Amino acid sequence: MDKNINIDHKLIEYIFSHTDNLHFVQKELLEYNESLGHIKRLQISILQANFLQFLIKSNSFKSCLELGTFTGYSTLSMALSLPKNGKIHTIDIDNGRNIIAKSFFKKAKVLNKIKIEISNANVALDKLIKNNKKFDLILIDADKENYINYFNKSLRLLNKKGMIIVDNILWKGEVINNNSRDKINTKIKNFNTHVKKTKINKYILPIGDGFYICWK
Ligand SMILES: C[S@@+](CC[C@H](N)C(=O)[O-])C[C@H]1O[C@@H](n2cnc3c(N)ncnc32)[C@H](O)[C@@H]1O
Q1: Residue 8 and residue 10: Cα distance in Å, rounded?
Q2: Beta carbons within 8 Å of 176's beta carbon, 6+ residues apart
């Protein structure tokens, strides 16, 4: 058996008190998401966002693509870590939430690093492939039904030393529940099997709802 400790709220507080402070707009955005009630669960966790920031900084990534903006916590976190000439292209089908996200990006003075596209992610990905675009980091966090499509298309958009990160791949731990009738759980399990069979380097990092980390 592997050795892992349980990370409860107190330990998370301890982790936060021993790492760099969040940007004040990250804090405001977290408070805003908190006010949304149940739907706040759509946001990636603070630790996941910190990890994305670490990847961007330690690999000197300059170009990111994100599927699933929501209110912009993951986008903002990545934009704050990108260099001045770095860019993140974020795609979401929902126009209403994009307006909220944009107001936070503006406040954090990172709007110039962010391209917001309101579109179906599949359509947007096809367009990017057609235009021969390449990215250093691709975060897949939109509708789970399309994860296999998003992943296959992302492989074509990835720079040589780039990474694809996929969220929710442990689905609250339900991926090991054989009695689960949750349709999304089945989709996630199929997706995980698909990645397993794909010839690419991969790790699963059990933070938040689970990150698949893939690179060529
Ligand atoms: C889990 S949330 C993204 C959370 C965000 N990354 C964050 O950390 O705050 C998923 C988002 O995907 C968007 N979405 C759902 N289906 C989509 C589609 N077909 N194309 C593009 N975006 C989609 C939803 O509108 C939602 O905002």
Answers
A1: 6
A2: none
The CATH number, out of the four listed (3.40.50.150, 3.40.50.1820, 1.10.260.40, 3.40.50.300), of the domain defined by the range 9-215: 3.40.50.150
CA-to-CA distance for 164 and 155, rounded, in angstroms? 8
95: left (phi over 0), alpha (psi -120 to 50) or beta: alpha
Nearest residue CA, atom 25 of ligand 1? Answer: 94
Task: Summarize pLDDT for 75-129 with one digit per residue, the tens.
Answer: 999 999 999 999 999 999 999 898 999 999 999 999 999 999 999 999 999 999 9
Closest residue by Cα to atom 11, ligand 1, is 68
Report pLDDT digits (tens) over 125-135. 999 999 999 99
Tokens, residue 7: 């990370």
Closest ligand 1 atom number to CA of residue 71: 9
State how far the Cα of 23 lies from the Cα of 68, in Å rounded to an integer: 21
Ligand 1, CB within 6 Å, residue ranges: 42-44, 68-71, 73-74, 91-94, 97, 120-121, 141-143
Nearest in space to 116 (alpha carbons), one of 82, 66, 73: 66
- Residue 102 phi/psi, 5-degree rounding, is -60, -35
- In total, the chain counts a number of residues equal to 216
Segment (H or E) for 147: helix 147-157
